From TrEMBL:
Annotated region (Disordered), positions in chain: 1-25
Polar residues composition-biased segments: 1-10
DNA-binding listed as a keyword: yes
Organism lineage string: Bacteria, Bacillati, Actinomycetota, Actinomycetes, Bifidobacteriales
Protein name: DNA-binding helix-turn-helix protein
Top-rank taxon: Bacteria
GO molecular function, one term: DNA binding
Keywords: DNA-binding
């Protein structure tokens, strides 16, 4: 039988936790940078919904204010990450190679049509049987279908 383990649980009021969130930063936070975005002019809930759903600014300059606030926090968070010993990883963009104008070879699909295969001639010749199977080729469905393409079992 399981024996209960005695422990002490400390409860921290979530409202108090919000106040302590900024204390975790060791880098300076610019003066006037609030934790929540506060627009320079009053906005209604309907205006906020229109902004979020229709991209309609509540007043001219709202988008720029929000953009500047978000960027200021991004700079603070990146500085904090660097201070904590982390680094910003920026993934290399995927290099898309242009399609060559000539095909390295071709394979026959299940209908007997030639399908061009682009790429390196050496790779194509080395793996041509794989390409034949991948694109169809003779006998790929031979065990399951008759010459008319009908399922033999039915």
């Amino acid at each position: 039988m399981n024996t209960p383990i005695k422990t002490t649980v400390s409860f921290k009021d979530p409202r108090d936790d919000d106040d302590d969130r900024l204390e975790d930063y060791t880098v300076p936070i610019p003066e006037g940078l609030t934790e929540e975005f506060v627009p320079s002019q009053p906005v209604t809930p309907k205006q906020i919904i229109d902004w979020e759903t229709k991209n309609k600014e509540p007043y001219p300059g709202y988008a720029e204010e929000l953009f500047n606030w978000e960027n200021a926090w991004e700079e603070v968070n990146r500085a904090q990450q660097k201070a904590d010993g982390g680094y910003l990883h920026v993934a290399d963009p995927v290099h898309i190679q242009e399609e060559p104008e000539t095909a390295a070879g071709s394979v026959k699909d299940a209908d007997g049509e030639d399908v061009p295969v682009y790429g390196d001639d050496n790779v194509f010749s080395e793996y041509s049987s794989f390409f034949e199977n991948a694109f169809g080729g003779d006998g790929q469905f031979g065990d399951f279908y008759d010459a008319d393409g009908e399922d033999e079992e039915n």
